[in-house]
């Protein structure tokens, strides 16, 4: 491993200098400056980077008003090895294997230099040690999705013995909500929606009631739920499936959110990953990588094209 003295000043990274479709604007550069470290940051040699819908929405210019300046290296999720630490860093040292979501606020000035690069700089508080039993690829698919799942469950005051309906159970966030609700929070019942071909997956993750959204309307079920977690952007329907006094949280604000549903945007926090690591290391909660969702760094455009189909099961990850 390179000691900090011999780190290169330039690196390979995927960047875009204008907003647009990934197939049009993403370019591979070999002379991108390696990010400079602040005192509270570590420099991570990227081994794998997970990509999320927020990446291509940002690339399209949907958060232009609060974005960092162009050109941008996309990518929120990272798993890799610490190669340099800032002067105030206490927890990590060179050689540590870490993972995390490098953008504390998902939509408020996410970093100009993201994770689809050979190196990325990230604040110590946003990272956790990589679970020992997981590969870098598995770990890279977790942070944004598992932290989002956790934050929504916390905001909805979910707790042992409660029931939950997960809308979009087979997606990156949905697969994590089902597992956390069951394994970490002790749900009495987990219902989840997906298309016909993914119902067995929902069962395998812990869903007691898999619902085929192509065949039935969950809001028409006689049973209502303590919490509805909407990962697809259907708050108008979601609120019809919650019990009186229950909670509805949504992470997709495609249209106005209908009360009592509440929309939130993730705040990244390495402490959440640390808290969940024992569940990952024991195998109670498992990463979900799409069967066709692992791409080499050279095929980053193809990785985005796959993610943009909207039919991904679990996560898409790029490895270096």
Automatic annotation (TrEMBL):
**Gene3D superfamilies for the chain:** Medium-chain alcohol dehydrogenases, catalytic domain, NAD(P)-binding Rossmann-like Domain
Sorted alphabetically, which SMART domains does this protein's record hold? PKS_ER (SM00829)
CDD domains in alphabetical order = MDR_like_2
Query: What protein does this entry describe?
Result: 2-methylene-furan-3-one reductase-like
Q: Which InterPro entries match?
A: ADH-like_N, AOR-like, ER, GroES-like_sf, NAD(P)-bd_dom_sf, Quin_OxRdtase/zeta-crystal_CS
Please report which protein family the annotation says this sequence is part of: Belongs to the zinc-containing alcohol dehydrogenase family. Quinone oxidoreductase subfamily.
Keywords (alphabetical) are:
NAD, Oxidoreductase
Enoyl reductase (ER) domain residues: 21-318
| MF annotations from Gene Ontology | oxidoreductase activity, acting on the CH-CH group of donors, NAD or NADP as acceptor; zinc ion binding
């Amino acid at each position: 491993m390179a000691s900090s003295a011999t780190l290169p000043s330039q690196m390979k990274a995927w960047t875009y200098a204008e907003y647009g479709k990934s197939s049009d604007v993403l370019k591979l550069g070999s002379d991108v400056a390696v990010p400079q470290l602040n005192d509270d940051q570590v420099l991570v040699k990227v081994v794998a980077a997970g990509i999320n819908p927020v990446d291509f929405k940002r690339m399209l210019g949907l958060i232009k008003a609060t974005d960092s300046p162009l050109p941008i290296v996309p990518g929120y999720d990272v798993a890799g090895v610490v190669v340099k630490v800032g002067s105030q860093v206490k927890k990590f040292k060179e050689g540590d294997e870490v993972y995390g979501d490098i953008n504390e606020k998902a939509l408020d000035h996410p970093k100009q230099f993201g994770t689809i690069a050979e190196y990325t700089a990230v604040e110590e508080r946003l990272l956790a040690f990589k679970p020992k039993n997981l590969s870098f690829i598995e770990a890279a698919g977790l942070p944004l999705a598992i932290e989002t799942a956790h934050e929504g469950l916390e905001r909805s005051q979910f707790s042992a013995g409660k029931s939950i309906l997960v809308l979009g159970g087979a997606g990156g966030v949905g697969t994590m909500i089902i597992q956390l609700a069951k394994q970490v929070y002790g749900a009495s019942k987990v219902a989840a929606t997906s298309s016909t071909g993914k119902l067995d997956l929902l069962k395998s993750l812990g869903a007691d009631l898999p619902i085929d959204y192509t065949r039935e309307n969950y809001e028409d079920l006689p049973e209502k739920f303590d919490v509805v977690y909407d990962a697809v952007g259907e708050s108008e329907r979601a609120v019809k499936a919650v019990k009186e006094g229950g909670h509805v949280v949504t992470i997709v604000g495609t249209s106005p959110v209908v009360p009592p549903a509440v929309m939130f945007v993730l705040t990244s926090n390495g402490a959440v990953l640390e808290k969940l690591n024992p569940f990952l290391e024991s195998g109670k909660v498992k990463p979900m990588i799409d069967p066709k969702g692992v791409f080499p760094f050279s095929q980053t455009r193809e990785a985005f094209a796959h993610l943009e189909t909207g039919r991904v099961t679990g996560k898409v990850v790029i490895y270096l």
